[in-house]
Amino acid sequence: MVAAGTGEALPGRSVLRLARKTPFYNRCGAGKWVAAGRESEAAVVPLGPAGQHNLRGGKGRCFVHARVERPGSVSAGVTARSTLAAVRGDRVRALQHALYRAAKADPDRRFHALFDKIHRRDVLDRAWEDVRRNRGAAGIDRVSLADAEQYGVSRLLSELAVELREGRYRPLPARRVFIPKPGTDEQRPLSIPAVRDRIVQAAAKIVLEPVFEAGFLPCSFGFRPGRSAHDALQVLIDESWRGRRWVVETDIANCFSAIPHDRLMRAIEERVCDRAVLALIRTLLRAGVMEDGSLRRSASGTPQGGPLTPPAQ
Predict the structure, then answer these.
(1) 53-56: Cβ within 8 A, 24+ apart
(2) Which of 76, 108, 127, 288 has a beta carbon 3.0–4.6 Å from 173's, enabling a disulfide?
(3) Looking at residue 123, what is its pLDDT?
(4) Stretch 78-107: mean pLDDT
C-alpha cells in the first residue's frame, strides 16, 4: 500500500490506470520529467537497481543537494569559499546551502542568529525577485507591483531593511477574497498580503526554508523545493511496477484555517530560538485579514496566499 500527500492536485485516474504501460522516467526538479538516460536542465538524480534514486553524483539547483558526511559534522571539503564557488557567486544560495548543511548535520540544533539574514539587502533583493515573478494583486493598501516599481524598488527595500533592523516593521492585514474551488461549488478563501509584506515573508522563507527542509522525510513532496505532484505520481508509478495495487488519498479539511498558532510556534521553536525571528513570525500570524471592511484576527489559521504560507503549513 502506498500513501502519498502533496497538497497539490494529482493528474486524473486515467494516468494511474496506464501506470504499468508507462516507461520509467527519471525524476527532475521543477516538475519536469525526462526519459531515463537523458540530460535535464533541472535536477538530475542518478538511478540504481530497482529504481533507487538516492545515490551520490546527482546535481541540481536546490540547496537540498548540499552534502553532509556524518551526523554532527559538515564535510571538511565544503568550505564557505567552495560553497560560494559551487553556486557561482550567489551569496543567497550559499547562505541557504550553509543553513541546510548545518541543520542536516545536527538535527537537534536550534538556530539563534537568523534575523540579521532576513533583512540582509541581498536577501531582500532576492525576495523582491520572487514576489515579482509570482505577480499577484495588490493588498488592502492598493499598492500594486507596478506602483512599487514606480516608487522605487531600491528605496522600498532600504526602508524595509531599516524597519526590520530597528524593530519598527508592522504588517498590514491581508485582503480576503474568495475563489472557486475546483471540482466543487465551494469557495476557497484567499488572503492577499500587501506587496511590502509579501517581500518580508519571502525573505523569511528564504532563510527559514533550508533549516526545516533538512528535517523533512523523502516521502514528503508538498511545497518543497525541487519537488512537485509529478514527483509523487512517479513514486506511485514506480510502486505499481513493484506490484503495489492500492493508493490511499486523504485530505485535511480547512487545513490552512485550522492550524493553531501556539502549536505552530512550538514546532518552529524546535529549530529556531532567535527571538527576533519568532517575534516576526508571530506578528505575521496575528496581522489578520480584512473582509467586507472588518478586521478579523484568530488564534488559529495561516492566511492562504502569502509566500510564507507553504513552509508554515
Answers:
(1) 53/26, 53/27, 54/218
(2) 288
(3) 97
(4) 83
> What is the spatial distance between Cα 41 and Cα 113, in angstroms, rounded to a whole number?
35
Q: Which residues pair with 225 in a beta bridge?
A: none
CA distance 204 to 200: 6
Cα angle for residues 41, 43, 49 (degrees, 5° grid): 120
CB atoms within 10 A of CB 247: 16
What beta strand segments (E) does the chain contain?
Answer: 2-3, 25-27, 33-35, 174-180, 187-192, 247-248, 289-291, 294-296
> Which strand (E) or helix (H) includes residue 212?
helix 195-213
pTM of the shown model = 0.72
Residues 6+ apart with CB under 8 A from 17: none
Within 13 A of 76's CA, how many CA atoms are on the CB side? 0
Phi-psi region of 43 (alpha: psi -120 to 50; beta: other; left: phi over 0): beta
CA quadruple 280, 5, 257, 191: dihedral positive or negative? Answer: positive
CA dist 62 and 272 (Å) reads 22
Other CB atoms closer than 10 Å to residue 303's CB: what's the count? 25
CA 85 to chain centre: 24
Give the span between the Cα atoms of 264 and 273, in whole angstroms. Answer: 14
Classified as helix, coil or strand, 238 is helix
